[in-house]
Design a protein that fits this description.
Length: 349
């Protein structure tokens, strides 16, 4: 490993900040040795704050109907082969009830931008989950909405909102999305969510089409400046019915490297080892945790719809019952010296 790389890693571990050019250097000149050192430092920091506990979030994929047409996404509106579904409020509440029995204390309602879920309906669902499970957090991940809508859901009891920024580079954003979508609006949503009082999650795909190290450096700088409570990063994986069907997937190696860097940039950040990471490598989630991640998001959706929420090809865990998912992950985490917490899992600042 060259001296500069070594120096940058220790500067980052100490100061939690680098320049854009330094972040890019860290990415361009990475070696296996640098990755191990970063992972070691990241795991130490994570253990100092969270011990060997891994937080879980029960993911409920409430709808695969979406008005957007993101070029990478398997449930984009132009995909006529996608068999659409949406869950009714009672089904969503059943998933949360089952999840609570299994030990989940955060429920993530995620879906496409489906106009069926008006503010009023989402607020009813959120307040009913909170009424039934007052010890639990509700996270919403339903894409871009207006500030008033975000506020209503917050007032109804939503605690957190996940909205990946996707890329911090405007030109790159425009190559991943159709022209009616705007980088500025996505960023404005993140700011609005923060201003309202949500715990906010941003994030991006690793290895998305056209992505270069300079783009990733900007993502890291954005994370350093925005200091999100959560940060979802996972590899891009092509979906066969999208314009990016022939693009290569992102790698486990680069995703883990970036997870470690993000842990050093913002030590308390809640960082999931994503399902996409588990999809590109059978031990991807374990490797993500060993690189500094501290959250996993098992699927709580009804088994019957899991295959239909197909953002990318070969998604794992689509045939498992929720209980099996939890037990499998519990076992996987124990095999590497961690355990699943039964805890809301708020950020420890
Ligand atoms: N509609 C909401 C939104 O836009 O935030 C939530 C659902 S969206 C499908 C959740 C995330 O899935 C996106 O932010 C994107 O980063 C990720 N995603 C979509 N297609 C993907 C793909 N082909 N490979 C990996 N991740 C993908
Ligand atoms: Fe809307 Fe993917 S295009 S969720």
């Amino acid at each position: 490993m060259d001296d500069r790389l070594y120096e940058l890693i220790y500067t980052l571990a100490e100061k939690h900040s680098l320049s854009l050019e330094e972040y890019q250097y860290l990415i361009d000149h990475r070696t296996e040795e640098a990755a191990s050192l970063l992972a070691k430092e990241a795991a130490i920091i994570s253990k100092r704050i969270y011990g060997n506990l891994i937080f879980t979030r029960g993911l409920i994929e409430i709808s695969n109907i979406c008005k957007n047409d993101c070029l990478y996404c398997g449930i984009r509106r132009s995909n006529k082969n996608c068999v659409r579904y949406r869950l009714m409020p009672e089904q969503i509440l059943d998933c949360a009830d089952e999840g609570h029995i299994l030990g989940f204390r955060t429920f993530v309602l995620q879906g496409g931008e489906d106009g069926y879920y008006t503010d009023e309906l989402l607020c009813q669902i959120i307040s009913e989950i909170k009424r039934r499970h007052p010890d639990s957090a509700v996270t919403i991940s339903m894409g871009e909405r207006g500030k008033q809508s975000f506020r209503r859901m917050y007032d109804a009891g939503a605690d957190r909102y996940l909205l990946r920024h996707e890329t911090a580079d405007r030109t790159h954003y425009m190559r991943l999305h159709p022209s009616e979508m705007s980088f500025e609006h996505r960023m404005q949503c993140l700011q609005d969510l923060r201003d309202i009082g949500y715990q906010v999650g941003c994030g991006f795909m690793v290895g998305s089409p056209y992505q270069m190290s300079g783009h990733l450096a900007r993502d890291l700088k954005f994370i350093e400046e925005f200091l999100p409570d959560m940060c979802g990063i996972g590899p891009f994986i092509p979906h066969h019915d999208t314009p990016f069907c022939n693009e290569p997937a992102g790698t486990l190696e680069l995703t883990c490297y970036l997870l470690s860097i993000i842990r050093l940039i913002h030590p308390p950040v809640l960082l999931p080892a994503t399902t996409a990471l588990g999809t590109i490598d059978p031990k991807g989630r374990e490797k993500g945790i060993q690189a500094g991640a501290n959250v996993i998001m098992p699927n709580l959706s009804p088994v019957g719809v899991r295959k239909q929420y197909e953002l990318y090809d070969n998604k794992i865990c689509t045939g498992e019952e929720s209980a099996q998912c939890r037990h499998c992950l519990d076992h996987r985490m124990r095999s590497i010296g961690y355990e699943l917490a039964v805890d809301k899992g708020d950020i420890r600042k």
